[in-house]
Amino acid sequence: MQFNNHLALCKGCGLCIAICPKKCLQYHQQNKGVYGQNAIDIDLNKCIQCRQCESICPDAAITISLKDQ
Ligand code: SF4
Ligand code: SF4
């Protein structure tokens, strides 16, 4: 699985963090999004690949590819 947070699109709204059932998303300490705010980071060890974060993101900033599981 590959998790991609497209920094040029992420506005740091936090919707993906809120919806993640495994609480594996958090604000990244260094990577900045479109407004200079902290973007999203993921703990892949906790992710169950439900793709809810991808679905809820209003800016299509998250894409998940399951091909590399
Ligand atoms: S829902 Fe999308 S825009 Fe909002 S913080 Fe998550 S990745 Fe960024
Ligand atoms: S795919 Fe599901 S478990 Fe993984 S980060 Fe997104 S919401 Fe969380």
TrEMBL record:
Keyword Acyltransferase: no
Gene3D superfamilies: 3.30.70.20
Alphabetically ordered keywords of this record: Iron, Iron-sulfur, Metal-binding
Official protein name in the record: Ferredoxin
Secreted as UniProt keyword: no
Natural source organism: Candidatus Komeilibacteria bacterium CG_4_10_14_0_2_um_filter_37_10
TM stretches of this protein: none
One family name in Pfam for this protein: Fer4_7
